[in-house]
Every structure is written in C-alpha cells, then in structure tokens.
Amino acid sequence: MTADVKPVDELSMDEARAELARLEAAIARADTAYHQNDAPEISDAAYDALKRRNAAIEARFPELMRADSPSTRVGAAPAEGFAKVRHARRMLSLGNAFAPEEVAEFDARIRRYLGLGPDAPLLYTAEPKIDGLSLSLRYEDGALVQAATRGDGETGENVTANARTIADIPQHLTDAPALLEVRGEVYMSHADFAALNARQEAAGDKRFANPRNAAAGSLRQLDPAITATRPLNFVAYGWGALSAPLADTQMGAIKRLHALGFSTNPLTRLCDGPDQMLAHYATIEQGRATLGYDIDGVVYKIDDLALQDRLGFRATTPRWAIAHKFPAELAWTRLERIEIQVGRTGALSPVARLSPVTVGGVVVSNATLHNEDYIAGRDSTGNPIRDGKDIRVGDWVQVYRAGDVIPKIADVDLSKRPDGARPYRFPTHCPECGSEAIREEGDSVRRCTGGMICPAQAVERLKHFVSRGAFDIEGLGAKQVEMFYRDDTLPIREPADIFTLRARDAATLAKLKNREGWGAKSADNLFAAIEARRTIPLDRLIYALGIRHVGEVSADLLARNYLTWTAFETAMTQATVGQGPEWDSLLSIDGVGQVMATSLVTAFHQPAERASIDRLVAHLNVQDATPRGQVDSPVAGKTVVFTGTLEKMTRAEAKARAEALGAKVAGSVSAKTDLLVAGPGAGSKAKKAAELGIETLDEDAWLALIGDG
Ligand code: IVH
Fold first, then answer.
1. Are the C-beta atoms of residues 114 and 284 closer than 8 Å to each other?
2. Positive/negative CA dihedral, 498, 499, 500, 501
3. Ligand 1 atom, smallest distance to 131 CA
4. CB of residue 187 inside a 6 A radius of ligand 1
5. Which of 3, 386, 579, 656 is buried most deeply by CB count within 10 Å?
6. Which helix (H) or strand (E) holds 456?
7. CA–CA separation, 654 vs 221, rounded Å?
8. CATH architecture under which domain 330-438 falls
9. What residues does CATH 3.40.50.10190 cover in the chain?
10. Are the C-beta atoms of 32 and 501 separated by less than 8 Å?
C-alpha cells in the first residue's frame, strides 16, 4: 500500500467498488503465484495488508461484498469475524414432540389442516436428528459459491472458505438445478472427536465438551486452514432456494441429493403413519449408542412436497415436520448457592450455581430457577410442582437438559438435605441497586423498581439494544457494552450515548484508541459500524427499545401498522391505557393484546424512559416500514371472510394461506369486509354481504384469484 491510500472511512461507494475490484485482482494474482506456481511475488506482510484492506472496505460497505470475495477463500481471515449472509429462504427450526401421543397429535393436526380423514393415506419420512449445526450450501450452475451457518434463521455467517475444506461437501455438481441450496448438518463422529481432543490435550489446547461443540468450533474458525485439519462431516437433509424442484417427494429429493454426490442418512425410512414412525423411532433409539455420532431424536416430515407446500410454516417452524426428541438426560449434583440476576426489565431471576456435573456430554454448573414460586415448589397457579418440594441451598438436585435449552432442576433428594438447611428467602430488594423489588398481583416475577437508576437494568438494556435482532452493531457486543458502561472517561450509559461516542473530545477518543486490545483500527471499525446503524429500519428500532412484551415479531407488526416513527410515537403518546381511539386502534392490530398495549403506552408515558428514547431518536434516520400485507398479491391488504363449506381446503388452511398473501381474515361480515368467499351452504353471511354490496366469490374463483386455480 502506498502513502496516497485513502482511509477506508473516507471512501465513496464508487471508490470502494473500484478498489475492491483492484484488491480482488491483486489477491487472486498473489494466490496463484503462491499456491499454484509456488513462486510468491509479494511478501507475506504485503499480502496480509491487501487482505486486511479488502476486509475493512467490505466491513464498511457490506453491500459491495461479492459472492467470491477474497475474504471467503482459504487463507483469508476477515479482520472482524465472519461476514453476514442473508438467507434466500429462511432456515427454520423444528417443533418438538417428546411423547408418542404428541406424535399422534402431530399427525392429527396435519389431517385436520388438510381436511383428511383418519384413514386417508399419508406418508412421512423418519430420519435421525443429528446433533451438529446446520449449514446452507449455495450452488450456482453447479459450482459451490457460498456456505452459511443458520445464525438467527434470517442471517447467518459466511463460512464458505471453511466449508470448502470439508470432504463431504462437493465443490461441483453435475446435472443440478441452476440454483440449488442444499441444507444439512455438519457434525463430528465420536472417534474423530476423541482423537481431536487427544491432539488438543497433547498440544496444551482446550478440550471440547462434546462433538457438537467441536464441530461448531471447527467450522467457525477464522482461519480455514485450521478447519481443514478438523475431521468434519456433512449430511444433507433438505434444501432452500431452488430454480427447479428436485422431486415430488421428500424421499425422492433426498435420493436426488444423494445422486448429486451428497451424503444422506441411510436410516431414512418412509412410514405410513404414527405407528410406523414410532417403530422406526424405537429402532433408531436402540441403535443410538453404536451409530458413532450424536443424535438427539428423530425427525418426521410429510413426504409429499405438494402437501408440504400447502402446510407451510408457522412463525419459526414448518407445519409439515417435527422433531421427536429422545428423553432428556439427567444427573444429580449439589446446589452450592442461589444467585439473583437482574434483567433488562428489572426481573429478579434466581440462578442455581451447581457443583459441575456432566449431563449428556455437557458440563453443567448453572441452572435456571425461574422465580420464587418455582423455588418454593409451586407453579404459577399455586399448584405443587416436584410434589411440593422446595429447593434449598445445599440440596442434592436432579438436573436435566433437553436439547439446547438451559438446564433445569427436575427434582430434589430430601433424604440428602443437610441439617439446618433453611427455605430460601427471596430478596425483597434489588441486589444491584438496593431499590425495592416488588411483585405485582398475578405476576410470578419480582421486579426491581429502580428503573433507569439500576445499573443492572441499564446494562441489560444496552446489551439488548446492540443484540442481533436490534441494532446489531459490529464490534459492540455484550462484553464491550459492559466495558463502556463502567468506563468513566468514555461512558455509554444509554443507547443515545453510542451515537455520540465519536463526537466526544479528541483526548477521550485517543484513550479509546490506545486502550489495551483496541488500537486505532478497531476503534475506527467500531465508529464505522455505528455510523452504518444511524439509519435503522423502524421495526428494529421498536424492538431495540426493549419494551416489555415487545419481541421481534411484535415490533415488526407494530412497524408495519404505523409505518413511520412519527406515526408510531404520536400514537403511543396520545394513547391512554384502557380508553380512547388511539388505545382502540392499538388493540385492533391483530396480534397486539392488552398486556403488550399497556406496556407500550406505559413506556412512552414514563418521563425518564421517554426522554431517553427521544435523545436516541434524535441521532437516527429511521427507515419507514412496508405496510402490513404488502405482499405482491391481489388480496394483499384486503379483509376476507370465509363461509359455507370449503371443498378443496380446510378453514385453517384457507385462513393461513390468505394471511400469507397479505389478507386479513375476519370471522364476520361488516362494512369493512372486502371479499366474501362462500362455499355451498353459505347462509346469513352471504345474505349480509349481498345487502352490503360486498364482492362474493366461490371457492374456485377464490383459488383462481390467488393464482391457485
Ligand atoms: S429438517 C424446516 N432434518 O435440527 C426444517 N433438521 O431443530 C429444517 N437437524 O436447524 C430442519 N437433523 O440443524 C432437519 N434430519 C434433519 C435434521 C435436522 C438435524 C437440525 C437442523 C435444524 C434443527 C431444528
């Protein structure tokens, strides 16, 4: 790099694009010289400088990052972790079943949805659920162009370079659709895991707790050369975006993937209903110990892909598949002490500190105790749990872990209770700020009343603010937020402070740049990441505010209803809890109930909280949301009523599909109704619609309208 190189911060988009192209060419040339010709043309340091500059420009202009960027290739270690990848189709998780009855209920639910009787034939596949981590591989014209982890389902990490080192992952496919995303699980076998841990130990490196952690740690190495030394496997179980279908059935598609060169699980079977599914579950469970890799259950999927399509998805899980999990693993250990953590909303959460114990291959030393009732042996309605046994410090407790969830306490061994152990007294004051902690009627949680003065709440709110679904600021995670919160020279005490960081005086900033483990580079990267987030979509902002009961889905709902920050803020300010037109219109949003509405309005009327929100928004450029239902469909935004008997689909399916197309489905006809879909036997609703002059269609006309006729 010569002296006239501009700082990354000062590059325009066009300059950045041009420079990325130059860098890409220079790096490719250096790669060829080094790897293929064994004749390096530039020094290692010069090569690293090219890579770093490339990564820094990409970090500032992620939209310019190319699928074949040098930072995704072997040898590249992007300066700041992995680049983000937005999945073309979301990567979902699976609903769980634990008992045979839940499997029968899964089948019954599907039949109801599809309008199939109990005896109508319905095929499922059943296959092991491998305990690894999911990976999406994107092939374009047969060439592997990208590999991404699941991340939050919408956005994952670009681990292409690492995936290229896995022998099971073909780099080229013949006779594949032009676009094919293959999804599957990366995992490590027991034998490879044991050998890796032995090597780690010999080299004085840390051992991995279990094969899953070893696989995840190996795939998410910043240096693909390390991944290459780790024995990882990949098994394909599904697909994402496609330019042409793989087959008509799940089984057919899996066979096709196998023919294309992917490993697929040989224990995949076709079953004609719950009895055969449970029988295959039993077979797999029996063979579990000798499989040679970890599985945590059996996945059942509807075989017919047209039916999978009709069944579609709930918020985060498909209706057409379920994971039948093996029973949770259990272990006994001693409860050393109970600690209270204070959360973002002031909730006092008791955590059990345990003598470390291995549960299903994982060392557990903490477990959640939920709330004071749970410790006392009661559920939220006052009924006994654990036969009413309370939990005391010093007790022998039984810990269990089901899947990925935080360990819980299943039972207490009273025969081992130490003499003198006393019932746990739940604190009535916040351990962090000393404010009174109160429990409102009907609430199982005790909350600190300190609000903004409670440091624990403030830090947790900041952590939430920078979290993935919220502002997601690269380089400003939970750890950094804690550090800044406690820093007296350069404090971040509330979200607005993040956006004034750079504008603080030069001497203060110099301190940041000199701080241990930081340096000018990472400070500049942080500023760039913060700048990039000054422009923020409305739904992320609403979610980031951390208002109780407002999660990501609700924030999206609110954003799509109010569309602009001004409209949202005005409505919340003008609303009064329990009355008035603003309150009614807030409640009329499908998905917003009394509890959430109260929480929202209260937050905007709480002076300190409100002032903090205003200070924040003054620094932002909030992007308007797309209206709810702005899906490209002829029924988007319309209110539809179904009546009479539908013959090609059930009511549940009709409703779900209309909603997926952006329509609102109502139960009764009113002046607001846009469309009535009337099957045979339609009665009073059809009459009323006719009186009101509302357009009425039969089922076939409806299907034709939505493009399914
Ligand atoms: S199907 C839309 N099949 O389990 C459904 N998932 O809990 C996509 N997994 O994220 C998943 N083995 O990582 C499917 N045979 C299998 C699986 C499997 C393991 C993992 C996968 C997924 C998670 C869901």
1. no
2. positive
3. 19
4. no
5. 656
6. helix 455-465
7. 46
8. Beta Barrel (2.40)
9. 639-705
10. no
Active-site residue, selected from the candidate residues 6, 51, 84, 129 = 129
Predicted local distance difference test score (pLDDT) of residue 464: 95
pLDDT at 72: 57
The pTM score is 0.60
Q: Provide block-wise average pLDDT over 10 residues at a time, the chain (709 residues).
A: 63 85 81 54 68 77 71 42 88 92 96 94 97 96 96 90 95 96 97 93 87 92 91 97 97 98 98 97 92 94 97 89 90 96 94 89 86 92 90 95 74 94 96 93 90 90 93 91 87 94 80 72 88 95 94 91 95 93 86 90 92 96 80 83 87 84 86 91 89 91 83
What tens digit of pLDDT does each residue of 523-545 get? 888 899 999 999 999 999 999 99
Q: How far is CA 699 from CA 445, 542, 631, 637, in A?
A: 49, 39, 21, 19
Which two tokens mark 342?
A: 């204070």
- How does pLDDT run across 227-249, given as a tens digit for each residue? 999 999 999 999 999 999 999 99
State whether the beta carbon of 94 lies less than 6 angstroms from ligand 1: yes
Question: Is the CB of residue 159 less than 8 Å from the CB of residue 234?
Answer: no
- Where do the CATH 1.10.150.20 domains begin and end in the chain? 451-533, 538-623
How many angstroms separate the alpha carbon of residue 184 from the centre of ligand 1? 7
Nearest to 8 by CA among 46, 70, 59: 59
CATH class of domain segment(s) 100-325: alpha beta
Assigned token pair, 54: 């490339």
Characterize the bridge pairing of strands 96-97 and 321-325.
Answer: parallel
Six token digits for residue 9: 């911060």
Phi, psi of 307 (to 5 degrees): -70, -40
Closest protein CA for atom 23 of ligand 1: 93
Q: Which residue has the CA at smallest separation from atom 3 of ligand 1?
A: 237
Nearest CA to ligand 1 atom 10: 93
Residue 154: per-residue pLDDT: 87
Q: Is 125 helix (H, G, I), strand (E, B) or coil?
A: strand
Tokens standing for 638?
């319309």
- Give the model's pLDDT for residue 665: 86
**Residue 655 has what pLDDT?**
86
How far is Cα of residue 243 from the mean position of the Cα atoms in its chain?
26
Q: Is 129 a catalytic residue?
A: yes
H or E stretch at 299: strand 295-302
132 C-alpha to center of ligand 1: Å?
A: 9
Superfamily of domain 639-705: BRCT domain (3.40.50.10190)
DSSP 417-435: PPTT-------SB-TTT--
Q: How far is the CA of 476 from the centre of ligand 1 (A)?
A: 31
**pLDDT at residue 40, as a whole number:** 56
**How far apart (Å, rounded) are the C-alpha atoms in residues 569 and 592?**
16
- Choose which CATH entry (1.10.10.10, 1.10.8.190, 3.30.465.10, 1.10.150.20) describes domain 538-623: 1.10.150.20
Q: Which fold has domain 451-533?
A: DNA polymerase; domain 1 (1.10.150)
Burial of 288 (0-12, 13-18, 19+ CB in 10 A): middle
Domain with CATH 2.40.50.140 in the chain: 330-438
- For ligand 1, say whether the CB of 92 is within 6 Å of any of its atoms: yes
Q: Is the CB of 372 under 6 A from ligand 1?
A: no
CATH number for region 8-72? 1.10.287.610
